[in-house]
Amino acid sequence: MASAARNNGLQAAAVLLAALLLVQSGSSPARAALTCSTVYNTLLPCLPYVQSGGDVPAACCGGIRSVVAAARTTADRRTACICLKNVAAGAAGGPYISRAAALPGRCGVSVPFKISPNVNCNAVN
């Protein structure tokens, strides 16, 4: 039982981390250059922090900067937003969402939307 709960928590954290820092949500995914796969892979170094807290790895902050830099168009930023929103929705409960949401600030990176399961990604410009 505890093992299953731990695995669910790790999966939720992984999803949340991937969603963590991309500023995109495309109403027209075909026009967005950024994909959720790219966002998740780029933010993978953030997973240990999202799961356990502690120090934010430098590679995590670099990943966040990379995702923000890659989100050059409105479609890309909206896609990133949707990716992170989906992760946040899958990781409801626990400290994961608050840690993920805090990452941009901890890394000194400005993200144009809140990392939350309730964010309106269509409002991202």
UniProtKB/TrEMBL annotation:
Pfam families listed in its UniProt record: Tryp_alpha_amyl
Keywords, in A-Z order: Lipid-binding, Signal, Transport
CDD domains, per database record: nsLTP1 (cd01960)
InterPro entries: Bifun_inhib/LTP/seed_sf, Bifunc_inhib/LTP/seed_store, Plant_nsLTP
UniProt protein name: Non-specific lipid-transfer protein
UniProt KW DNA-binding keyword: no
Record's keyword annotation contains Transmembrane helix: no
Signal peptide: 1-32
PROSITE patterns: PLANT_LTP
PANTHER family: NON-SPECIFIC LIPID-TRANSFER PROTEIN 2-RELATED
Function recorded in the entry: Plant non-specific lipid-transfer proteins transfer phospholipids as well as galactolipids across membranes. May play a role in wax or cutin deposition in the cell walls of expanding epidermal cells and certain secretory tissues.
UniProt GO BP: lipid transport
GO molecular function: lipid binding
Biological source species: Leersia perrieri
Residue ranges of domain Bifunctional inhibitor/plant lipid transfer protein/seed storage helical in the record: 36-121
